[in-house]
Each structure stands twice: as structure tokens, then as C-alpha cells.
Queue: 4 jobs
Job 1
Amino acid sequence: EQAENQYPAVLTYARSPFFTLAAVVAFTVMCVGATLLTAINTPWLGIKLVAGEGNGVVVQSVAENGPFQNITAGTKIISLGADEIPEQRITPKDIIDEPDTLPTFDQWLEFKRNQAALFQIINQNKFFATIAPPNAEVRRVSISSVAQRPIADLPIEFWLQVSIATFGALIGGWVLAFRLNERSAHFFAFCSLGFLGSALSGA
């Protein structure tokens, strides 16, 4: 009988504002942690690329301790390749931030294919890059890949997306915690969790 009498107390605690908000916070932290692990556990090049003249891609900046540390800013990256993997040319379309802005579905599919090919190349222990340094001849250089990206290298846009996602989820959890008996609060919380997923996937 004593054990049976404890069930209502447990259920009451589980439906308390503190427990509800704590559960939302824990879930949000897990999602943010998974996003961060995914972001840093990708091959790192240590360069920032921008569109150059014509259909070329140019190095804007180079990390001092990155795989391309011996390449100067202003160098044109023509293509990447690896042993037994076809060489893949890089164009400005391959470095756009928002591929959903491409005018046609065929161009979007081409973008996805190119990204998959480039990822396969840079995921090798060693690969090569065909480059055209400023005022120098085109040459091929060997690059040793870095499997993990430094957290400090993550762009401000990433942290902004994570912050917005976290804030949205916590707002939904806060409303739900103090309006547990209202159906509208449940709908708002579900929308907030959906927003969390969509914002983190965009990070």
C-alpha cells in the first residue's frame, strides 16, 4: 500500500514545472551536443574560399596550422583529387552557403553530387590539390587531411544558429512548464522542438 501511495506523488512531480523545464533543457543540450560533434568530426581544410574571376575559386584566408598552410591567400584552387578517385573540379557553385537558392532542381542535384565527390576526396588520409598561385604556374600539391575541425574554427553563423535554436526550444519549454494543462502550450512546445531541429540542421 505504501508503494501504491507513492505513485501519485511521482506523477505529480513528473508534471511539475521544474521537471518539465529540466527535461526540455536536457533534450536541448543533447541536441546541441550532437550538432557540435557532427560539426567538428568532419575533415578540415583550414581555408576560406571565395568566388574568383570567371568560374574559379580563390583562397581568401589560410589557417596557420591547417592542411593548406603552405599556400598563400589569393591562390586559385582548380581541383581536388586522390589516388583511385577521379579528380573533381571546384567552381563557385560548390561553395555557396544556400544551395536551395539554385534556380533549378537539376543544378541542386549537381551540387549534391559534387559535394559528395569532394567529401570523398578530402576524407582520404592524403589527397592532392591542383592550384594556381598568384603570378606562378599551375602545380599540384599533396595535402595531408585533418580529420577533426577545431572548435575555434567554427564560424559565427554556426554559433548564431545554435543560439537561436536553443533560445526557441527553451521558450517552448518555459511556456509548457507553466501551462501543462493547456493544449495550446503543448502545441507551442512541439513547434519549438521542431524549430530546434530545423535550426540546428541548418547550422
Note: The beta strands are 47-51, 57-62, 76-82, 85-89, 126-132, 139-144.
Job 2
Amino acid sequence: DAKESLEQTVEERTKDISHLEEKFRTLFEQSLDTIMLLKAETGSPPTISDINPEGCRSLGYAREELIGKSLAEINTDDNREKIPERIQRVESGDPVRFKSTHIKKNGKTFPLEVVAKKIVIGEQPYYLAVERDISERKLREQEMILNEERLEELVAERTDKLQKTIKLMVGREIRMADLKNEIKQLQKQRDEAAEKSTNPTKL
């Protein structure tokens, strides 16, 4: 009975593990984000141990071309320099979030947001990285900045025109006031002249 119970437990655990592996593989294969398993290398950048279809698509490589490739090869120069510091942060065991830029097979670059964590499979350390292409977000941010700059230019232009209009209106009002005063003076002089003509003896 004890043997049968142990065998049943082992069988159940095996099924559980198999089910979890199937769920992970489904997530790995169907994810809209790049999922990359990186093998830790002593004294050099990690190498790609596995990558999902979305990662292959975003980089423009076949999976076979990426397996074994150094992480440095798909990073821009400025991001290659940051790899040791980022690996050091990931080694702490906590998930680490940062932004990077990858190079496609055709030489084009694209920005991405990365969350990476150290894991151990067997006795081999790996880094699990989930990456999201943020090209569209960057484009929207740039469009927002351009729109803000255009709006500021438009406001400045409208403000300048409004100030000129106000100055022009104020100038006209001043000239109108001066003109009214001149008319009043002329009317007064006319009235005085008319009074003298009708009453010549009045001093």
C-alpha cells in the first residue's frame, strides 16, 4: 500500500509538472512580448539560450540564428556598455526594469522596455527577460512634444498679434481723444467768434 501510495504521489507530481510546463510553453509561444532566456557567462555578456516567436519576429532572425548569440550583438553600442551594470543589478535576485535599444538583423534599431530576473534551472544560472517594443509609445511621445511646441508657437504668435492689436487700438483711442479735443477747441473758437460778431461792443 505504501509503495502504491508513493507511486501515485509521484505520478500526480509528474502530471502537475507536465501541466505547468505546458502552460509555460503556451505562454512562451503565444506571448505578444519578447521572452528571452539568457545563459549567464563568466566574464562576458550572457548568450541567448531560448527566445520565443515574437522575439524572433521583432529582431528579424530565425530562432536558430539567435540561439547562442551574445546579448551584446543585438544591443546598440551605448547599451552594450550598460550590460555589466544591469547584470549586477539582476544578480541581486529582484526583478529589474530598464529601457534599452536592440538592433534588428537589417540594422534598424528599436526601443524597448525590459524586465529581467535571475533564475536557476538545475544548477545553471539564467536570466529571464521579458521585453516590450515601445516604438509606438516613443512616436506618440514625440508627436505630443511636437504638438506642445506648435501650440506654444501658436500661443506666442497669437499673443504677439493681440499685443499689437491692443497697441493699435490704444493708439487710435488716443488719437480720437486728441481729435475730439481739437474739435471742441475749434467749436469754442467758432462760438466766440460768432458772439463777437453779434455783439461787437462786448470785450
Note: Residues 135-198 form the longest helix (64 residues).
Job 3
Amino acid sequence: VYNLTAVRDPAEMVTRHLLDSLSVAPYLRGSRVLDVGSGPGVVSMALARQNPGAQVTLLDRQPGLDLARAVAEKLGLSQQLTMLVGDMRALDYGRSQFDVVLFSYCLMFFSPEEHVNLLRKAHAALVPGGKLVLSQYIADDARRKRKGALRNALWIYASTAQGDAYTTSECLDFVEQAGFVNAIEKEWLVEEEVHAFIVATKP
């Protein structure tokens, strides 16, 4: 994992990547998965190893995918992974061809309008009944409980023009605007710190 991420603190690697991957894994069941903003594909690699029948498409810019391709070859996962190179805002995700679309720590860098536009592209790419998994820093509505989201909000403000550690209500609203239904938020606890992600369905 050290070589697949910019995070260098071992404890943060466990929280941010390994345990985070495990938390969303039950919702990534499906033979065709699109990982948007995948970076080097930490979550996708874990999914592919757990499910030899899964076909996972990693979508991101070239540098991250180059690393993902090299690691996939070493792990014997190349046959399960497809690389889609480019800007997630510009690329077409396709129509009704994925069972699951995952956004992992990438939508928080965009404005509310871009958020919804990207989620609409995911909606179009999913088959009916397909699942959206939105995993990122999500602040509780009072912006008091989830300390990780609050800490990273400052970093997001400093590094983006319009991003935010959006609240639960805001994220659920984005998902609904994009056409998804039955959206639920799941919380998980690591070292007394609460994290969250959202799962929704294409009707």
C-alpha cells in the first residue's frame, strides 16, 4: 500500500486505505465495476483479488494508471482490469454497462454543480438496479462529529477553488438530483473516529 498512495504515515494508511477499502467492499458486489478517480487503484486491486470474476475499469489520468498497470501485472490481475485514461469530467462513462460505480475521495474537490454532473454520468453508466458508492470525507450536518472530515476540509479549501468536505445532507441531495434512489449513509468507527460513505441505487 505504501507504494500505491501519497499517504506516508503507516497508521493513516491503515485507516485511509486498507480499512476504508474493507468498509465499502460489501457494496462492490458485481461483475462489472467502474472506479472513477481511481488513482493507482487500491480499492479496485483489493476487489479484484477477492473476486476473480470481477472486471474492474479504472478511470483516471495517466500517472496513477501507469502505476496501477504495473502493480496489476505483478499481482496477476491484469486480465481483470481495464484502464480508461483521461479527465473524469470530460470522459464518457458509457451507457448501462456497469453494476457498480465507485467514487473514492475525488468528488470532494468539485463544486456542487460538478458533483451532480459527475453523478449523472455514473447514473447513465449503471444498469437498472446498479449501485453507486460514494466514499469520501463527509461531514455530519452539524460539522462537529467527524473529525477527519473537518481536518481535511481545511486542506480541501486550500487546494481547490470550489471543493468542500460536504455534509451528509448535501451529499444525499447531490445523489438524489442525479436520479438515484434509496440512498443511505453508512458509518464506521476507527480508533474512536467516525467515517462515512453513501450507497444509492439506480432505479
Note: The longest helix spans residues 10-24.
Job 4
Amino acid sequence: YSINGTTINKSTWTNKEVKVTAKLKVDIAGYTLVTKKNDGTWQETDNQTFGENGIMYVALTDGRNYGETQATANVTNIEKNAPSVNINLSATEVTTEGTITATVTQSDSESGINIGSCKWIYNTTAGNIGTNESSYTGTFTSVTQNLTLKSATVGTYYLHVLSADNAGNLKETIKGTITIKPTTSASPGSTTHMASEIPYSWE
């Protein structure tokens, strides 16, 4: 099993094409190794390239007749589906002194989540920022994790989550809008008066 000429373990997850090569342990005079992919036709080659999971069959031929299948190789390590992401916010509006909790759940039913490559950032960008890790500052330690979101600057904010699985598939998820409002100093129901408006007398 190899990817771009580099040998890999057949259980190593990938989202790239996998080349499977068969080798005879001993030469059999008058016979040639042939292979086929899934339900395809026999070919006089010792390898097949897979863009998705499948089976390679190996047989011998004398040039006229094809013998029974001598071996099979199962390709089960290709995954091209992006992770699933769910984000729940405790609120969508808060003051500059408050915080919002974002519960982020990431899952992947095939290769699994690569938590070390999952990142997040909280900013004012409404659109996609892409899947480059350098664009994110926060990290994850668990597939389900609570993030504390806070900003001292009034504005409209968004949570960007970069999710990665063990096959190398990446996905950006955006949650928002989150409105940050200014904190008012006066308490509800209170009245503020200027000193000149308050009548007084000297005694």
C-alpha cells in the first residue's frame, strides 16, 4: 500500500488515492501476474490505484487462460467525508462584561476526529476564513468542549471552528451572529440629576 510512492500501513487513514501492489514470492514459469479492481477486467499489471474503498483481486495467467483468484487485498482506509460539527450557544447577546458559553461537539464516524488539529477563533469576520490552522488561535482537548467567549469591544462577533479527522479532511463551521453591547453604569430604575437641579438652602 502506498500514497504518492510512499509506503503506508494499510490501516492508515487517508483522503488520497491509494496504490496497492501485489508481489509473487516465487516465479512460476509460463505464468504472469494479473490484477483487477472490484468487478473490473483483468489487467497484466501488479498494481491498482483506488480513489475510494474497494477490493483488488490477484490471479495468474498463461496468456490465454486466467486461473482462479489467488489473493485479494481490501482497501478500507480511504475517507473523503468531512467531520460533523454541532455548536450550541448559551446566548447570542451579551454586554462587554459578560460571557457566552459555546458547546462544540465534533464527530466523525469513520476515521475519527484528530483533536490535535482542531482549532477555533472568536472574531468579527462573518465569512469563511479558510482551513489553514494558522488562521486560528484556540485549541481543543476534547471532542465535546465548552468554550468561553468574551469581548471588551462592542460589535458583532462570530465563532469559527476548524475540525479535522484522521484522514486529513478539514471543515470550517461558523456560528453567529453574537452581539456585544456596551455595559451601562446606571442601575435599572435609577434617576440621575445634575447638582444644579437639586434645591437646597443654607441655615
Note: Confidence is low (pLDDT under 50) at residues 190-196.
